[in-house]
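Q: I have 210 residues here and want to know how they pack in 3D. Can you give me a structure?
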Amino acid sequence: MISDRFGNGVAALLALAMVPTIIHSYLEAKNEDGYHARSINFELADLKFLDTTRRDRWVMNMFSAEDWVERTTQTSEGSEIRLFVGRSFDPKRLYHHPELALLYNKDMQNKGVHFLKAIGDIPIHLLQRRNNTGVAAYCLLYDGAFVDNPILFQILTSLKLLVSPRKPMTLFFVYDEGLPSIQSIEESKAIQVLNAAVRDFQSQRNGVFP
């Protein structure tokens, strides 16, 4: 049994513990920011894109994302570029090895985070196919800021997320099957497409860009 003198304190702690459950399970509180992946233009970096046949159910299962696009195009050199942009209120579903889902069976090797002159201050996560041509690059946007270290991001935001409405994270992911190495991505069409997609997305709200 609990002494009466501790009753108020215990009740307060129990009430506090219920706050995250009420916010996320019962109220399903979400902070919509007015941006939409589906509004990104079909023409980026002077290339015209077409939607792939990816299904909504697959994207929901993999990334818990309802707002997303996946499009492809061919460069003048005959290389295919694939662009995926997805938004989720469950950030971990996006930043935890997105290449495993989007590039299934490609055997990609993580090449770390880079700041490319062509992109500016955006931290770009680079991956290279181990035994064949193919380079991928992606960036993560959350609450107006780009995420370079997802693990640190999770630690710093976990407590805040317990007591506040969820905010969406956005994944911008591009893959060029024709690039031979990450050294070739700086001036590549793929990085131009990634940059154009990010800027087009941010321009949806009066041209605001960090």
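Q: Anything worth noting?
A: The radius of gyration is 20 Å. The chain has six helices and ten strands.
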